[in-house]
Amino acid sequence: MSKDLLRTEGVALLREAFPIAALLRIRAAAATYTFQPFSYSVTLEDFAGVDLAPLRVDDLLSRFIDQRFECRLGDSWVRKRFAPANAPREYRPNSWHQDGALRAHFDPQSKAVGPINQMTTLWIPLQDCGMDAPALEFVRQPLDHLLHYEDLTDAAVRDRFPSDFFWSPNLHFGDAVIFGATTLHRTHVTPTMHQDRFSIEFRAFLSSPLSFPLPGPVAEEPKTSI
């Protein structure tokens, strides 16, 4: 069922996907880590001393990806995102983007974008989120192309898709979401949230086109991440 949703909607929610004890150890390390301003993110390659093996990420990803993939720790992240009242002056929640735009070229004249960096993202919050802590908002519609950053304003995205395509799931500790390279998403935060959020994400890169077919022909980060 989740694999079908990933194919048809571009994103799937995985309930109780990871052991709480392993996530607690990662969260404890994240809570004491000194994140750099502006990004408030660190790659898993640089986030040393945390045992990721109990998560068995490759086993889970192999249920969704039918071909060889590489989970690159240099392109996978631990992140901190802030509730509005706690946010530093230089912090901004992340706007709409597609992970498959990582290292893509954005032509300012023709608005051509490409190529798609074929990947699947597994996003794991290190606490409950969506109600009192920032989570993610998705457009549940896989695309066959990347959108130019000029088309990624909130107004432009909401004009492009029906209102029922927008989805902000409430996640419990141990849940995760998995989504495709072209799935639009952004930080979901509301003025009433009071808790900051830590998360960890794994990016699985494919050596050939996406293992789940997108509608229509496949074309070949805007500059923000989750």
Please describe what this structure looks like:
- The protein has a single domain, classed as q2cbj1_9rhob like domain (Jelly Rolls).
- It contains 4 helices and 12 strands.
- It has helices spanning 2-9, 20-31, 57-62, 154-160; strands spanning 11-14, 41-43, 69-71, 77-81, 105-106, 113-114, 119-125, 135-139, 166-167, 176-180, 185-188, 197-206.
- The chain is globular.
- Residues 209-226 have low confidence and may be disordered.
What are the SSEs and their pairings?
Elements lengths: L1 H8 L1 E4 L5 H12 L9 E3 L13 H6 L6 E3 L5 E5 L23 E2 L6 E2 L4 E7 L9 E5 L14 H7 L5 E2 L8 E5 L4 E4 L8 E10 L20
Shape: globular
How far apart are the termini? Answer: 25 Å
Number of helices: 4
Name the CATH class.
Mainly Beta
Q: Helix share of residues?
A: 10-25%
Could you say which structural class the secondary elements and strand pairing correspond to?
Answer: alpha+beta
Radius of gyration: 17 Å
Q: What oligomeric state is this? A: single chain
The largest pleated sheet is described as: 7 strands, antiparallel
Residue runs with pLDDT of under 50 for 5 or more positions: 209-226
Strand content: 15-25%
Average pLDDT reading: 90
What's the total number of strands?
12
- The SSE order reads HEHEHEEEEEEHEEEE
CATH topology: Jelly Rolls
CATH superfamily: q2cbj1_9rhob like domain
Proper CATH architecture:
Sandwich
**What is the count of structural domains?**
1
